[in-house]
Amino acid sequence: MRFNRRTNAVVAGAVIAGLTLAACGGDSDDGGDGGGGGSAAEVEVFTWWAAGSEKAGLDALVNVFEEQHPETKFVNGAVAGGAGSAAKDLLQSRLQANDPPDTFQAHAGMELLDYINAGQLQDVSLLYDAFDLREAFPADLIERLTHDGKIYSIPSNIHRANVVWANPAVLEENGIDPDKTYADLDEWFADLDVLQEAGVTPLSVATAWTQVHLLETILLSTLGADAYTGLWEGETDWNGPEVTEALENFEQAMSYTNGDRDGLDWPEATQMVIDGNAAFNVMGDWAVAAFEEQGKELGTDFTAFPVPGTDGVFDFLADSFTLPEGAPHPDGARNWLETVGSLEGQTAFNKAKGSIPARVDADPAEFSAYQQTAIESFGQDTIVSSLAHGAAAPVAVLNAVSDATSKFTAGASDIGTFQSELASAAAATS
Prior knowledge:
Layout: E1 2-4, E2 8-10, H1 21-25, E3 42-46, H2 52-68, E4 73-76, H3 85-96, E5 103-107, H4 113-117, H5 125-130, H6 133-136, H7 139-144, E6 146-147, E7 150-151, E8 154-155, E9 159-160, E10 163-166, H8 168-173, H9 185-197, E11 201-204, H10 208-223, H11 225-233, H12 241-254, H13 266-274, E12 278-282, H14 287-292, E13 303-306, E14 313-317, E15 319-321, H15 330-341, H16 343-353, H17 369-380, E16 382-385, H18 395-409, H19 415-427
Parallel strand pairs: 3-4, 3-5, 11-12, 14-16
Antiparallel strand pairs: 1-2, 5-15, 6-7, 8-15, 9-14, 10-12, 10-13
Helix pairs in contact: 2-15, 2-16, 10-11, 10-12, 10-18, 12-19, 18-19
């Protein structure tokens, strides 16, 4: 589908699971225990929120759920692993074995297309009516979540991917204005050169998925919003010179990163900035919780700004929840989905996690200084879809891009080979 704000930006969106008409009616009148079937007695919620701010967000959401639905027992199915890789592998095994959880976390967008095509998710459109979500969520977000006239998920939040986090003390110590704004990558790279020459790690990064995250923001910065979106619509040539330029910029960006990157996950890379062991880190805005939970204050202890060249663009992703076909406790899942979409649930969850609510009626004053800027940006910026976090491309494409990126950053391929492999990855499911 096409997503319009200031300009058009595409999200071929598919989202989460839902209940059938019978399930929406429930085995009880109001999401109770379903009578003798007991389908609301419990709900297994499958996520990768197992640590840090992610677990804090889940815990906050569970607290609201237990207040709203005390008749339903929450069963935590969290599986640890960077960006959900371990959880997704286990989930696929369970779905193939016809042993689905009652609901599972997934990134809204093209990540769910494989599940939809395999007939593993139910349409939850009726729940949008039952929970008044069509009024609570922006109309363009509803469009983004719609696939072939159906909706397959209820988003719990909105995240921004194209954010640079910086340690102002490190910058000042090396003669760089901590309040400096960068018009483009070249200006930023000039300061990264200064830091590198001073023996400071300019840019922290971690394992493979964080490198793909960095790649997507460099593509966005170099190409601009329309051409970046065109990569996923077939309108931008992956073999074209502008993509070559973007990959050269990515290669330069990687030259500023820490040598132990492949042994770290995103919290460790972010911690390098918090501790003053690196100047900058490119990460989604879930990172803000890592700063805040350690008592760091925006504008004093850390700064945040769009990746140079992407000001005015919001690189979108969202966590969402589904109802799989064959869920053993569909009324329990209905109750969980109701809490996920509720104002109380979204407020509690996002205050803890660092993201912003999908709902338009949330009060910005209840959120942190950074989150208030994100709410404002999401309301006015051009929206594009994240590659690394499931919104822009199907899983098979992301996996192929990740493999090609890992080869390149490990020195096992050159830019020409990298570009060719990216083009092949994008064409595989076009």
